[in-house]
Each structure stands twice: as structure tokens, then as C-alpha cells.
Amino acid sequence: MSSVPRFWRNLASRYNLEGTHCKECGNYFYPPRNFCVNCRRSGQIEHYKFKGTGEIVTYTIIRTAAEGFERQAPYTLAIIKLDEGSIMTAQIVGDPEKMYIGMRVRSVFRKLGEGGERGMIYYGTKFVPAET
Amino acid sequence: MRDVAIIGVKNTNFGELWDQSLRDIVVEAGIGAIEDAGASGKEIDALYVGNMSGGRFVDQEHIGALIADYSGLSKNLHIPATRVEAACASGGLALRQAIMSVASGYSDIVVAAGAEKMTDVGSEEASSALASAADREWECMAGATFPGLYAMIAKLHMHRYGTTSEQLAEVAVKNHKNGHFNPIAQYKNIITVDDVLNSIMVADPLHIFDCSPITDGASALVLAPAELALKYTDTPIYIRATAQASDTIALHDRIDITTLDSTVIAAKRAYSMAKLRPEDIDLVEVHDCFTIAEICAIEDLGFAEKGKGGIVTANEETVIGGRIPVNTSGGLKACGHPVGATGVKQAVEVVTQLRGEAGKRQVEGAEYGMTHNVGGSGATAVVHIFSRER
What we know:
- The complex is a heterodimer.
- Chain A contains two helices and eight strands; from the N terminus they run ααββββββββ.
- A five-stranded antiparallel sheet of chain A has the order 6-5-4-7-8.
- The two termini of chain A are 31 Å apart.
- Chain B is α/β, with parallel strands linked by helices.
- Chain B is built from 14 helices and eleven strands.
- Chain B has a nine-stranded mixed sheet, with helices on both faces. In chain B, strands 5-6 form a two-stranded antiparallel sheet.
- In chain B, helix 4 crosses helix 14 and helix 7 packs across helix 11.
- The longest helix of chain B has 17 residues.
- The radius of gyration of chain B is 19 Å and the shape is globular.
- At the A-B interface, strand 4, strand 5 and strand 6 of A face helix 5, helix 6 and strand 5 of B.
């Protein structure tokens, strides 16, 4: 799935949905960006912890899993628009048949996957339906 | 800038080539293209090789040097060789580098090749290598797969425009029909809409038959300045435009999930450079890594209104003999998708068509052809336009 340092250096973002915000243009970034794509060098980036609520832009039910996710298949993968306007990719926990475009979701802390029998277990952010 | 012509082409067979190595297939394609051009190795000024992931697929980097060596261009001739990488658009980009090298006057005779040897590793390893074209940290670590990303494009396209699974299937059916007449195609079998719909689901709504396969294969082109082209061949094919555009690496960062802006912009630049419009193009090879990708491509290239790609396909406007034949080679779906080779193979197909040598899949009277090669889920797009007359 990934090397330990590669995952570890983004733990705050992965565990707590911490991203960034540009004070210059007002845009929010999750995944975090330390260089504003709109203002470039004139941007002023600060840390921002997202509220964790948003809605499904589109989704799919993955049946042939990615490496390290085999035990979770089938799982729902979605593109989620957070209420701050930032858009990200994450899994939705719950009955895949009940997902729909536009569904309100909220973030939860969950196991993401594992790096084989002796590998690391990865935790991070997934989403659940907000209505329930 | 000088006008550039293609004077030689060659594809290897596409498929699971167990008895041939990466170097074997590139040499076969390269030598074939040089022979087709009636040129000799000594005349070559430079070599560009599109290759996505030699490191992951055959544990080999330094591909440019390897290919030059085994093509007999190193030890005595010391010809410069450059590997070009842009995921699945590596081949198209290798062609673009070669064109710029000739157009600028820096080189005369240049080989643009593309190759991928994907079956030396198992399909899980191959899928993982392909997934590295996406954002490994913020898409793949969430559990994204390549079919999964295109499935999300398809889901939204269906939701917004009413595109159906049957319309997606029609893309695969048509491309297999074209592949049936292409001697190098990986899949020459005819399939039906039901075959596609009854095949296993990989990522809803995409079935396995909505996906391009894992393929070994290589393709090569020989380029020359237009003023020298007739010295080599009676049927040079001219490059009218080369264009490239970038977009965000992750699908979720796009302005519109169902539009590849990189394709829209590259096409706009290409049409402007060639002083042509979509209705002038007689055939197009598009990047159908998944059936939905062909539907988006024909919309984004201007051959169908946004949202109508499925209907246009179901109406048989994209078949050979239709309004705008798409993927006469069989496309990535049926001809196969050796990722680094694909962009070059598309050009080989268009050149073959414009020369009038495409046999049973010939588009009659074709004057202008286009190729469209995409990297990842659309972070890179390369568009070329070719013509029969200078």
C-alpha cells in the first residue's frame, strides 16, 4: 500500500481531515496543498481542520479491489465535495446499494487497509451517510 | 518551423507475447519502421521511446539506452536515445518530442517508438503499476483503482446525461468489430452488447468488457522533414498539428468530472494549429482505456455534443462508414493497450488509413486523421492531426 514514512508524514491530514486554506483567495484544500493553485506565489496558506461534512459527487462500488484492500471488497469509493468546497476521494461505509449522487455524508475515523500479514495497518478518514 | 512527415510505420503483434522481451518487441517495431521507410540506421539522428513503467513491469529503467543498444544504434553510431514518460500518454508524447526535434531543424530522420511489456508480472502487480498514473497518495491510498476512477466518471455521466450501460457496451462491440479486421489486434473476436453486460462487474457500472486489457506490444514511426520525405516514400503522411495539455493529477480536482479539460484544450490547440474543424476530420483514434473514456473523448474532441456521446455511438455514427469512424484499429479495447506503445500505435493506424492500406477496415477517401492519447484519468492529453496532402 505504501511505505511507513510516506503514510506517517501525512497522519494529521489522514486521521483528522486537516487540510489547508488560502487567506488570499479563500479556497480550501483537501488533500492539503502548501502552494495555492489560484494565487501561486502570492497565496497565503494556513492549516485548516475541515468540519467533515459534505456530499457525494459521484461514486462506484469497487469489486476488484486495489492491492491491500482485498478483504474489504466490495466497497464504495466516492468523490466527496466537502462543505468548505474542497473535493476529495474516500470510501463510504455502509450498504453500497443505498448510495446515491447528492447523498449527505460525514467523516469517520476508520481502518483503511493493511500492508500484508506483517505490514502496517493503515487508519484514516472514511465517510458514512449523514442522515443515519 | 519545418513541416514534418511520417515516412515509415510498424506495429508488432499486440497480445500476450510470452516468448518475446521488451527489447525484442521494440527492435522488431523499430527495424520494421526503418525498412518501411527505406532508410538505414546510419541516417537516424535521434530516437524517442515512449514507455510508462519499465521499472515496474520488467524491473528495467534506462530504456532509451537499452533500445538504442539492441537496435544497433549505440556501439558504432552513438545515436541519442530518450525515454519519454507520461503514463498511458507516453507514446503520444514520444511522437510529439520527435516532431519538435525535426520541426525545429535540430534533427532530420528521427524514430518515435513506444513499447510496453506488461505480462512479465502478474495482473495484480500490473494493475498496481497502472494505478501509479493516478495520485498514489490521495486517490490510491483511499482504495481507488483505475477502473474505479473511470467508473466514477461513468456514474456521473449516466446520472447527468442519461447515458446507459448499453451505450457503453456499444463502444466495446464496435471496437471488437474493428479489431476483427486488424491483423495485429489482441482480440479479434466479435462480441455482443449482452456479452458486455453479462461479463463480471469490476467497478459499477464498468464490466470487465468495458475495460482495455493488459497487453505486450511495440510500435514505431520514422519521421523526416517534409522536403526530404518524397526521397524515401511515395506516400508520406504529413503532421498538421501536435498539441498537448495538462490537468490535475487527481480526478477529484477537475472542474468537471465528466469532461477531460486536457483533451478539450489539446484539441482546441490542434484544430487551431491545423486550421481545421472537427467536421474536417475523416477518422480518429481515441484513448478508449474504458468504454466511458471513448464517449467522453468524442464529446471533448468536438465530434459529439456534451452528453450525447452514448447516443452518437448507439446510432452507429462512429463505425467504419459512419459520420466519424472512431478507433478503426480496434482501439485500446480490442487492439490492446501496451501503455507506452498506444500513442504511437494510434499514429501507425492513422498513417495506414491515410495511405489507403488499411484493407477491410479502410475508411474510403480519408484525407485527415486524428489521434488522441491520454495519461492517467486525464492529467495529460496529446492530440495529433495528420493529412494525406501536404
